[in-house]
Amino acid sequence: MTDRGDTGADGKAAATPRTPRGTGRRLHGAIAHKLGTAIVSGEYAPGDILSSEVDFSEALDVSRGAYREAIQVLAAKGLVESRPKAGTRVLPRLRWNLLDPDVLAWAFAGEPDKGFVRNLFELRAVVEPAAARFAAERRDREELRIMKDSLAAMRRHTLATEAGRAADRDFHDAILRATRNEAMIVLSASIGAAVSWTTQYKQRARALPRNPIPDHAKVYDAIAAGDGDAADAAMRVLVDLAFEDTRFAMPE
Amino acid sequence: MTDRGDTGADGKAAATPRTPRGTGRRLHGAIAHKLGTAIVSGEYAPGDILSSEVDFSEALDVSRGAYREAIQVLAAKGLVESRPKAGTRVLPRLRWNLLDPDVLAWAFAGEPDKGFVRNLFELRAVVEPAAARFAAERRDREELRIMKDSLAAMRRHTLATEAGRAADRDFHDAILRATRNEAMIVLSASIGAAVSWTTQYKQRARALPRNPIPDHAKVYDAIAAGDGDAADAAMRVLVDLAFEDTRFAMPE
DNA sequence: TTCTCCTTATTACTCCGACTTAATAGGCGC
DNA sequence: GCGCCTATTAAGTCGGAGTAATAAGGAGAA
């Protein structure tokens, strides 16, 4: 059964290719990732009961302790709930912390559900324009400078390069920080990261059909001018166009 | 040191008062709660390094396993990060999952930070009106019936009674479900729950200064009529007034 | 001197096996 | 048939031993 503890010293080169998991990721993290994706992708339906700790940990060929730590992570994100005698069961979707960065990453690890992507864009279309409005009202000179520099960098390198995408992230991060609202920063950053997963699909499917610089420039101008209404409107356009791009690239 | 394992069978009545922790809560959950509140309240500053596993678990008089599981929970919520040799350090606030229900609960366990409460209300003022707009456009007959019944129940019992507050929750939950947007439901429910903690302060400080029924009725009428703009505006009023009430009740 | 490489010591990570607690199912008495 | 009580089962907790990774300090070379 457990051929880990005994063969750990001698037979590692034969059976397992050096490291049984991705480097830098701990064992319980890898298990949590594996189970998390399985649950979020629907492999385990809400209400399902996982195999008992001993069985499952033996099946995964890890110790009970490592398995339990992974379960604690999933429980912390609202995916499962464990009770003595009853076992560990998958909670209904509404109990999941859908906005948790890890949960979002797991949701986008496989084929992301189209309806959920639309939900996220709807939420984004609500929050981002409001964030731009706050930024226009509260930004200071330093943040404005970062936005300007990032915009220039986006012009130099295009979004096709990694440097260009980094500049795009810097631009949006600067806007978020300018809102002076930590809750909004965390929320928007999570959703933004998740949405950018889908962008990779987009990049693969077709070349960028449109130049995003002018739209970004409009947002910057509005924020620089301190015009909340204009910033709101300009960011709304940006989000809508991003959704359009993603929709074209998504299956069916 | 460990008077837990040996006195568990005979001397429990003498030393420990039956259960050393809150009933229904597991040991690692209790530890996570304890450390979580300590971190969120600022007792440990970002960048601080916690004592080593062995030291801290001995100080808390629990096994290393239970302590580690608690740390995994905190790490899952972005509060801490553990690395070999480096120890477990508190992450900067921007890495925290501030919208996680547990993190919010820990933040509101002590004296909630005034600026953070304002941030949450700002976010709420952005999301809730948009949710009401979606609800007005998408609600079905069943959800409308629930809103109507809840509103009637709120009229019968006031918000001073538990039944009245339950009806209030049902009313808002029905609106959220009608948005057909899981992400919005989860987000709004988390923030709403957190904000309602502060409402308890409010209730204690003074009697409710104003009758909330007419404002709720306006929201219901707009949703029933399918008028998105009106629903947005009516909900905006509701959130703003709730913020006003909370501000009066908050210290300084 | 300064940089790089390597050693070392510290710390988290993992595993194991036993015991404890709690909740359910089924039997027992009423 | 109803409620209590015991037996079973699975999670919870514990202690200790051994492993792996990394930050830090020292040795050697440029």
Automatic annotation (TrEMBL), chains A, B:
What Pfam families does the record tag this protein with? FCD, GntR
For this protein, the record's CDD domains field holds: WHTH_GntR
Region annotated Disordered, chain positions = 1-27
Q: Where is the HTH gntR-type domain?
A: 25-93
Give the SUPFAM superfamilies listed for this entry. GntR ligand-binding domain-like (SSF48008), Winged helix' DNA-binding domain (SSF46785)
Biased-composition ranges, Low complexity, are 10-22
Q: By its UniProt entry, which InterPro entries does this protein fall under?
A: GntR_C (IPR011711), TF_FadR/GntR_C (IPR008920), Tscrpt_reg_HTH_GntR (IPR000524), WH-like_DNA-bd_sf (IPR036388), WH_DNA-bd_sf (IPR036390)
Keyword tags: DNA-binding, Transcription, Transcription regulation
Please report the name of this protein according to its UniProt entry: FadR/GntR family transcriptional regulator
